[in-house]
Amino acid sequence: MSYKKRSFNPRFRQWKFKPTMLCSGYLSENGVIIKDSYAIDHLTFNGSYGKFIGQRMNFQTLSCFSNEESLLEYNNIVNNCQNLYLSFVEAFYLAYSLELLTIYCSEKDKLTIDQFWKICVDFNDKFLVDYAVYKFFKDRYWVVRSGLNFGCKYILYKNSPEVCHGNAAVYIMSKCYFDESDFDTIASRAQQRLLSNVKKDLIYCYIKFIKDEFNVYEKESLEFIKVTMKGKKARNADRPVKK
What we know:
Layout: E1 23-27, E2 32-34, H1 37-45, E3 51-52, H2 68-78, E4 84-86, H3 88-97, E5 101-104, H4 113-123, H5 127-138, E6 143-146, E7 154-157, E8 168-172, H6 186-197, E9 201-209, E10 225-232
Parallel strand pairs: 1-5, 8-9
Antiparallel strand pairs: 1-2, 2-4, 3-4, 6-7, 7-8, 9-10
Helix pairs in contact: 3-4, 3-5
Organism: Strongyloides papillosus (Intestinal threadworm)
GO molecular function, one term: nucleic acid binding
Family: Belongs to the tRNA-intron endonuclease family.
């Protein structure tokens, strides 16, 4: 069940899950930047990829500033949302799985998909696992966003995050298989308590490497990783059951 937001941009009523437009992006220190306004618009309303640079929730009010002009000036600087930022997992999915994104390290120098994979792995030594889990849920038609605000790896949405709240929080476990006791640990019960307050379910992902030895710097290593999951309904978990 998805909890829809009370108000959102009416354009999101035409939102679609899968993008189809060829796009170009530019490598940055920790992701890929999309500058073309048409590409930004397409990725926003077709799959809800990325976030705008400088995008943040506006908790500032006029009481924080000496006058209204100062408030407007601040918002113009902080929320200057002209370029779209893609995380490395989002960019690699668009470039490799969907074959829609071409990535440049400069205005003219185009990266091959193998070069980009090596950059991703150098940036994050857990990129192989992070990407495998990301793709696992994307292939099941979930919108997958960072779960940093909730202390997890990913948050799953059934629609655009502009339209609905997240359904579930994803944690990547450091073991291969599920055990019933996984949901009974102190850490798990704390996670369930937190998620029940924000109306999200709990999902644990388990990683199994089919092959013992492989080169993580080769994208073909994705063939040797298997992702499984186990979920638990955490929403309203602490409420008493009606008899």
